[in-house]
Specification:
Blueprint: E1 2-4, E2 7-13, H1 41-46, E3 65-66, E4 76-80, E5 111-114, E6 120-121, H2 125-133, E7 137-145, H3 146-157, H4 161-178, E8 182-188, H5 193-213, E9 218-222, H6 242-245, E10 250-252, H7 259-269, E11 276-281, H8 295-304, E12 308-312, H9 316-319, H10 326-337, E13 345-346, E14 351-353, E15 359-365, E16 368-376, E17 389-391, E18 399-405, E19 415-422, E20 428-439, E21 443-452, E22 459-468, E23 478-480, E24 487-488, E25 491-492, H11 501-504, E26 516-524, E27 534-544, E28 553-566, E29 578-589, E30 601-610, E31 616-625, E32 643-648, E33 652-658, E34 665-674, E35 686-693
Parallel strand pairs: 2-35, 4-5, 4-12, 5-7, 7-8, 8-9, 9-10, 10-11, 11-12, 13-20
Antiparallel strand pairs: 1-2, 3-13, 6-7, 14-28, 15-16, 17-18, 18-19, 19-28, 20-23, 20-27, 21-26, 21-28, 22-24, 22-27, 25-26, 29-30, 30-33, 31-32, 31-34, 34-35
Helix pairs in contact: 3-5, 4-5
EC number: 3.2.1.96
GO molecular function: mannosyl-glycoprotein endo-beta-N-acetylglucosaminidase activity
Protein name: Cytosolic endo-beta-N-acetylglucosaminidase
């Protein structure tokens, strides 16, 4: 190891070792890091945190949102059960999956459960990162089933308390280390009198320890075993299972209930009505109310009685319907539930989103195409808006619809498409995309990147509303001609901070790919007496007809990025990525071409670096091979342009199969991407070089 102009250099002699990477942590075919589960009690109890586990750690705890999970408002739980689990979502650094399942209606969900039939289901980190970015709590699943499940339960529950405490301590440690929020406990086998007698003690200890070590932690019990130890689903909370409800944070009922079950539960639940999650099987298996595209019938009854709802396997729209119509079907499914799903408010800055779904048919970086081909990386999903389709109630004229679209992107793999029609008598429409509850800072930087599709002279603007502290406005998503004195627009910056210089010079001009930036300025609130002690309340995009226009004006607008940033944070200095290291080097020969040159070398290695994670959205990892050719002016050779390898959401990245050049050098660059959404100069990137030679 040596230093070379602030690049740490590592030297390697190529050797084709057969030393495999640990199978639990790496895919045997690609050597890419994968999420994992435990199949037995022995595996659970033997686990201790290891450096390999760090790939699967979530970027940060759940973002703040309002109202919090602790409020008594009825909640919505989504239980994700799809074809056994750990599909394309198991690849921590993403994959090249075509048409994968993708969920994006996070604004309507409070809790996300990752479900599989493995004993200890640890949520793949991509789901945890996407959910936490939206303020959604994530639970893993502890499940026992059949005879083997019965033996597992007897092993830790039928003895003294040290046995069940050891299991609880491991479950808490796993949630704490991987940064998810708790567990769904699902015992699908009968229990002996000793085991069922210890179950409430196990639940109480697990819940207390989780609350102590995981802020906002949650333990839920599934309606299965009753207090006698029999496996006997009740489809309700009653005297036979109340002891388990009383020992943890909530109760998830089985699915074959009727309204009389809900009526009976009112007395059992008492003041904890919101802690009862009434199960709804979206596949509509068994004797259930609703399901499939009639799931709203279940929600109507559940909300009528004030209970929370647990939607099991809403991936039905992906598994059972045409894949080519997936986005249309998913939007239809959630639109039918909309009136029964209270939404949430974002309550922290910076707030930046490019609407990327964490997938696409190509990769784009600020309007410039970087790679072509399918990709899927759930951790890369950015904050998604309120999706809706509305018509004006008065006469049905005028409409607006928001939906995601993979056809074009400003940054990532997708954008938000808003289409609509402004009726003749209306000057403009305003689409509410996000509900906010953020204390107003003295200066707010606002920016919108958009593109109008086809000929249109509609004017597009980003607007923000304010309200009194203590108000959490969750109302209609769409308003026509909503005039309000508390709506504000930014004014241009005179002298932008260095971090924003790249953007502000282009304000109002066309950017790469036909995109346009509006805003790029400050909303100065500190001077406005009436805004002191207020909160930012709603984020809207407005569409106005041209002056003098009287006919219906239709529009199709693609949103590429929205930024709402406390201007003070733009003055903070940028830290540099430090101490990039190269380890776990593996060499192999690529499959030779028929009649081609000798087989290329393929390099696999792990990069580690040091950087504070709290201010970053992610890291972009690049490589650059060799020293390149001569410069255009005939001067000395210069390095070639870096090639993007992928995204990292922790301080490490596994390079599975890079193809270095033949001159014995490959350089790796780690680019931090701040939450504020601006580009970091290369001088602040981390760098390491690997010099290699044949033996």
């Amino acid at each position: 190891i040596e230093e070379e102009q602030e690049v740490t250099v590592f030297r390697e002699v190529v050797s084709f070792t057969a030393d495999p990477l640990p199978a639990r942590y790496y895919d045997k075919d690609t050597t890419k890091p994968i999420s994992f589960y435990f199949s037995s009690l022995e595996e659970l109890l033997a686990w201790t945190p290891d450096v390999e586990d760090s790939f699967n750690v979530a970027l940060e705890p759940s973002e703040c949102r309002q109202p919090p999970l602790s409020s008594q408002r009825p909640r919505t739980l989504l239980c994700h059960d799809m074809m056994g689990g750990y599909l394309d979502d198991k690849f921590i650094q993403g994959s090249a999956a075509r048409s994968p399942y993708c969920f994006y209606h996070w604004q309507s969900v409070d809790i996300f459960v990752y479900f599989s039939h493995h004993a200890v289901t640890i949520p793949p980190v991509g789901w945890t990162n996407a959910a936490h970015r939206h303020g959604v709590c994530v639970l893993g699943t502890f499940i026992t089933e059949w005879k083997e499940g019965g033996r597992l339960c007897e092993a830790f529950l039928a003895g003294d308390e040290s046995s069940f405490r050891a299991v609880a301590d491991q479950l808490v440690l796993i949630a704490q280390f991987f940064r998810f929020d708790g567990w769904l406990i699902n015992i699908e086998n009968s229990l002996s009198p000793a085991a069922v007698g210890n179950m409430p003690h196990f639940l109480r200890y697990l819940t207390a320890q989780l609350h102590q070590r995981v802020p906002g932690g949650v333990v839920l019990w599934y309606d299965s075993v009753v207090s006698s130890g029999q496996l006997k689903w009740q489809d309700e909370l009653n005297q036979h299972n109340w002891v388990f409800f009383d020992s943890c944070d909530g109760f998830f009922t089985n699915y074959n209930w009727r309204e009389e079950h809900l009526q009976r539960m009112l007395g059992q639940a008492g003041e904890r009505r919101a802690d009862v999650y009434v199960g709804v099987d979206v596949f509509a298996r068994g004797n259930v109310v609703g399901g499939q595209f009639h799931t709203h019938k279940s929600l109507e009854l559940i909300r009528k009685h004030g209970f929370s709802a647990a939607l099991f396997a809403p991936g039905w729209v992906y598994e059972c319907l045409e894949k080519k119509d997936f986005f249309q079907n998913q939007d239809k499914f959630w639109a039918l539930l909309e009136r029964y799903l209270p939404t949430h408010s974002i309550c922290s800055l910076p707030f930046v989103t490019s609407f990327c779904l964490g997938m696409g048919t190509r990769r784009v970086c600020y309007g410039q195409e970087e790679a072509v081909g399918p990709w899927y990386h759930p951790s890369a999903q950015e904050i998604q808006p309120l999706f809706a389709e509305h018509r004006r109630e008065a006469d049905g004229q005028g409409w607006v619809k928001t939906h995601c679209c993979l056809a074009d992107a400003w940054n990532g793999g997708s954008s938000l498409l808003i289409s609509g029609e402004i009726p003749p008598e209306v000057g403009h429409v305003a689409v509410r995309l996000f509900s906010l509850q953020i204390p107003v800072p003295p200066k707010v930087f606002l920016s919108l990147v958009y593109k109008l599709e086809g000929p249109s002279d509609v004017e597009v603007a980003l607007e923000i509303t304010t309200g009194d502290v203590g108000s959490c406005h969750v109302g209609d998503i769409w308003t026509l001609n909503a005039e309000t004195s508390s709506r504000h627009s930014p004014r241009p910056l005179r002298v932008p901070p260095t971090k924003l210089a790249r953007w502000v010079g282009h304000c109002g001009q066309q950017l790469r790919g036909g995109w346009v930036q509006r805003g790029g300025g400050l909303l100065v609130t500190g001077r406005c007496v009436n805004l002191r002690g207020c909160v930012l309340r709603d984020l809207l995009v407005s569409f106005a007809r041209p002056p003098g226009g009287r006919e219906e004006a239709s529009f199709v607008c693609r949103l590429g990025e929205i930024q709402v940033v406390d201007a003070k944070s733009l003055l903070a200095p940028l830290p540099r990525v430090q101490a990039v290291t190269v380890s776990r080097v593996r060499w192999q020969r690529a499959a030779p071409e028929e009649e081609g040159p000798p087989a290329r070398l393929l390099l696999g290695c792990t990069l580690h670096w040091t950087y504070l994670l709290s201010p970053v959205r992610c890291f972009r990892v690049h490589c650059r091979t060799g020293t390149g050719g001569g410069s255009p002016g005939g001067g000395p050779p210069g390095p070639e342009k870096p090639t993007l390898l992928g995204l990292a959401f922790v301080n490490q990245y596994r390079i599975a199969a890079a193809g270095p050049s033949g001159d014995g050098r490959v350089e790796f660059l780690v680019e931090p991407v701040p939450k504020e959404g601006f580009l970091v100069p290369q001088a602040e990137w981390g760098r390491a070089a690997l010099l290699y030679s044949m033996p």
